[in-house]
Amino acid sequence: MIYVTGDTHGLNDYKKLHILAGENPDLTREDYVIIAGDFGGVWSNETLVEWLRPYKELPFTVLFVDGNHENFDMLDAYPVEIWNGGKIHRIADNIIHLMRGQVFTVEGRTIFSFGGGTSIDRGWRVQGKSWWPQELPTMADYDEALTNLKEHNFKVDFIVTHSCDERALYYPPLSSCGKAMTTYPDNRTLTNFEEMVDYGHWYFGHYHVDGDLTDRKTALCHNVIRIS
Q1: CB 166 within 8 A of CB 183
Q2: 63 phi and psi angles, rounded to 5 deg
Q3: Is 134 exposed, middle or buried (0-12, 13-18, 19+ CB in 10 A)?
Q4: What is the pLDDT of residues 110-152, one digit of tens each?
Q5: Domains (ranges, CATH) in the chain?
Q6: Does the predicted model carry a pTM greater than 0.85?
């Protein structure tokens, strides 16, 4: 089975995964939960062992796209592997970072991954300690995505990102959550995929709200949704 959920921020919002495991005792490492960015478990050398331990103890495999609140220097230090058709960083046996612009085939479903986002609070953060410029997608990430999408005729079952496209900002629950929705470069980049990719459903995190924007697009925070 495949599930998808929103940000976990290390251990801050990890509990939903523990609850999922408790309510589904038959889940194994052949089942997958995708975190739509801001995994946060790889944050510092001082917290790495403690913060990853609960994830390693989960019965299922954790997949995540990167968000804007990740330690990219540490993530990028992991060796790149090919897994189910796309590039990954393997953090642990059951913890896998789905790199940007990849198309994976999992349980017979194709999943396009594209992490990254904008930290609106970076003015209060310290570069190299609590904020990293690699949070923003690059042209190399975009070119990688185009190459891999072309191999799949620009058609996938699911898109999982951290941020969202520009149009999504004008739909509830984003437009009605009481926050000013500003368009950033990551939103504009993702708009290109909205226009070129034939997809079944798009899931994203980042905005700390849950809800369906359309019948094909869902914002995630606390909810854990089974998609396959």
Answers
A1: yes
A2: -115, 145
A3: middle
A4: 999 999 999 999 889 999 999 999 999 999 999 999 999 999 9
A5: 2-226 (3.60.21)
A6: yes
